[in-house]
From TrEMBL:
Upper lineage: Bacteria, Bacillati, Bacillota, Erysipelotrichia, Erysipelotrichales
Entry membrane topology: Multi-pass membrane protein
NCBIfam families according to UniProt: yidC_oxa1_cterm
Molecular-function GO terms, alphabetical: membrane insertase activity
Domain Membrane insertase YidC/Oxa/ALB C-terminal per the UniProt entry, residue ranges: 114-322
TM annotation in the entry: 113-132, 184-204, 233-250, 284-300
InterPro entries: YidC/ALB3/OXA1/COX18, YidC/Oxa/ALB_C, YidC_ALB_C
Protein name: YidC/Oxa1 family membrane protein insertase
Assigned GO CC terms: plasma membrane
CDD domains, alphabetized: 5TM_YidC_Alb3 (cd20070)
Length: 333
């Protein structure tokens, strides 16, 4: 019970952190959908056409009056944004958005914006993996114990009295302890990913290299919705690949488990023919998460879809790595 309460307290804390994160930044885009010119984060002096940004909803009245004199095709000079300037607009901008945007800008200065996104994404996922390796291992092991979990559920199927429910909870807890599984592990990884995803969203929306850049002829500041509206195949392909890879990355532990069972010639038990509530619930969560991502990302810059695509591919690699570790541990024991 103490461990359960401790786990719930951690989740509550993380939920509050995510809530604060999501409300820590004001929207960098104006009502016309364009990026506010004073929100662009640059590591060096750059120029951008006036008609590509919003100059009427910015806070600096002097700049607003100056830009009002410009023609739409005139170039506006963007000065580099310092850490102090970023932090003065909010802790989230200073500590998360600004470093990520500048990292993308610096990498892009040696290659292009696309590679800036790819390398930054791999670095982010690598750091997240280091901090959540144990939780992800627990999530991976959940696939390994599904037969035993289903056996416990079938044992107490239809029994709703308090004693049976208590016994079922105790047996489930013992199963978790046996395999060193933390039930809140998957949720922990998700909650950590949320503020990072929001930070990356703001960083890619505001990074000058992304605003002005392209990758393989694709403007990174346009949205998948724009691609569908104008039948731009490249945008549609990236968006569809993002959805597919996102779902596959979530189902990868199941895929690896089934593959390993075939290699080990594991026979399907009779009790697994019945309805597996745990597995169905897990699959429902996966499909819901993928659907939510699809809805959000269709109106976000294609750079974000590109980020999530690379993230999903990276997570697949980590899943394969964790699975190989679990297999080695089982063989060693």
């Amino acid at each position: 019970m103490a461990n359960l309460l401790k786990g719930k307290m951690k989740i509550l804390f993380l939920c509050l952190f995510v809530l604060l994160t999501c409300t820590a930044c004001s929207s960098p885009r104006a009502t016309d959908g364009k990026l506010k010119v004073d929100q662009i984060i640059s590591s060096e002096k750059v120029e951008i056409r006036k008609d590509l940004v919003n100059v009427t909803d910015i806070e600096n009245e002097d700049l607003k009056e100056e830009y009002a004199k410009y023609d739409d095709n005139d170039l506006i000079t963007i000065e580099p944004m310092t850490f102090g300037e970023a932090f003065s607009s909010g802790w989230f901008t200073g500590l998360i958005v600004w470093p990520l945007a500048q990292l993308i800008n610096i990498i892009a200065s040696f290659t292009d914006a696309g590679w800036g996104i790819i390398l930054t994404t791999i670095l982010i996922q690598g750091v997240v993996f280091l901090f959540t390796k144990k939780s992800q291992m627990s999530s991976q092991r959940m696939q390994e114990i599904q037969p035993e979990m289903q056996r416990i559920q079938n044992k107490y199927a239809g029994k709703t009295d308090d004693h049976s429910r208590l016994m079922m909870a105790q047996e489930t807890q013992k199963l978790y302890q046996k395999y060193d599984i933390h039930p809140f592990g998957t949720l922990l990884v998700t909650l950590i990913q949320l503020p990072i995803m929001m930070g990356v969203y703001y960083a890619m929306t505001r990074a000058s290299s992304v605003v002005l850049g392209s990758f393989m002829g694709i403007s990174l500041s346009q949205t998948p919705l724009y691609g569908f509206q104008h039948l731009e195949i490249a945008y549609i392909i990236i968006y569809v690949l993002m959805i597919i890879c996102s779902l596959v990355s979530l189902k990868m532990p199941q895929i690896l488990k089934k593959r390993q069972d075939k290699i080990d010639h594991v026979k399907k038990k009779e009790y697994l023919d019945t309805k597996n509530n745990a597995m169905n619930s897990m699959n429902t969560t996966m499909y819901f998460s993928t659907g939510l991502i699809a809805i959000l990302y269709i109106s976000w810059p294609i750079a974000m879809a590109f980020y999530w695509l690379v993230s999903s591919l990276t997570r697949m690699c980590f899943s394969v790595f964790l699975h190989s570790m679990i297999v080695k541990q089982k063989k060693a024991s």
